[in-house]
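Input (structure):
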């Protein structure tokens, strides 16, 4: 049994060594390792001189040995640590081998797990599916991440179907009103479902999914997801800003609107009488930026004329 275990260990070591040898070593690390070995050689020489000088003293000879061993151990630990850090960040095989290390807190990242592209003479439809990957012992967080990943996947699939439906209906109407197949092809219609990671830490992830069709601005939609990875809760604007969040957000948005109007030409916002901005509520769209501040987002035409596009307002905490 011990021999079998040793063969398995040797096989794992050889595989890890192969993976490590394929990793490009950064120049900075290469230089640092050389420095460590140079320091080691110098200490070897110093220890050798000390040994020769004190060769007649038995106790001195004995104390020289552990010092050499300590130097070797120090260099070995530094080199092994460097291998581990680079392997964990660059080698999938190495990273998977480290999965058995106990998780402290939550480790999270956002991945593109699936891409889709379909092209014919009428249109091109592209999509990518973002998924959150977590390593945690918190079951509530695991469940919340699984639910969100499922929702995002279903959202992307639904918008691929809608894009096909919208474009088919548009083509039918175009042909019915005198257009030709060749003219429709020349339009170069593209539909795209993409995601943008606004914040990605081990405590929080904030993602925006955008569904866009280039032939009709009415078919541009955004979906916002901000998840607390320490609790598994979907965060609201109140969670970010606290009590009084409505008044705080309203004040910041109105002040920013006024500044933009005063600073630029052809910048305008609808008045309340025209159906413009009145107040945020618990269902307002927002994401959290890298500074940890919520950014309230209004769709095209929601608070301003269409030529101004989507409007965003950062609310400083």
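Output (sequence):
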């Amino acid at each position: 049994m011990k021999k079998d275990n040793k063969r398995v260990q040797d096989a794992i070591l050889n595989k890890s060594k192969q993976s490590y040898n394929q990793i490009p070593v950064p120049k900075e690390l290469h230089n640092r390792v050389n420095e460590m070995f140079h320091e080691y050689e110098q200490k070897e020489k110093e220890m050798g001189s000390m040994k020769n000088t004190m060769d007649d003293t038995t106790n001195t000879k004995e104390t020289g040995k552990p010092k050499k061993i300590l130097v070797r151990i120090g260099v070995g630990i530094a080199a092994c640590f460097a291998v581990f850090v680079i392997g964990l960040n660059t080698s999938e095989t190495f990273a998977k081998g480290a999965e058995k290390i106990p998780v402290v807190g939550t480790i999270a990242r956002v991945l593109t797990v699936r891409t889709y592209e379909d092209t014919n003479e009428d249109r091109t439809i592209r999509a990518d599916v973002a998924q959150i990957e977590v390593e945690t012992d918190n079951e509530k967080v695991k469940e919340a991440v699984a639910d969100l990943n499922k929702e995002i996947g279903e959202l992307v699939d639904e918008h691929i179907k809608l894009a096909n439906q919208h474009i088919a209906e548009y083509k039918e109407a175009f042909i019915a009103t005198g257009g030709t197949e060749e003219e429709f092809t020349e339009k170069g219609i593209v539909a795209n479902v993409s995601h943008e990671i606004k914040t990605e830490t081990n405590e929080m992830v904030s993602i925006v999914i955008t569904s866009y069709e280039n032939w009709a601005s009415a078919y541009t939609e955004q979906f916002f997801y901000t998840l607390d990875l320490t609790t598994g809760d979907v965060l609201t604007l109140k969670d970010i800003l606290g009590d009084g969040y409505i008044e705080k957000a309203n004040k910041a948005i109105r002040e920013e609107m006024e500044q933009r109007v005063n600073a630029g030409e052809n910048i305008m916002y609808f008045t309340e009488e025209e159906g413009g901005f009145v107040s945020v509520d618990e269902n307002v769209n927002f994401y959290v930026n890298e500074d940890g501040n919520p950014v309230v987002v209004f769709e095209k035409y929601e608070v301003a004329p269409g030529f101004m596009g989507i409007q965003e307002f950062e609310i400083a905490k």
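Notes: Strands lie at 107-119, 123-135, 189-200, 204-213, 220-228, 286-288, 294-298, 311-314. Confidence is low (pLDDT under 50) at residues 1-9, 53-104.
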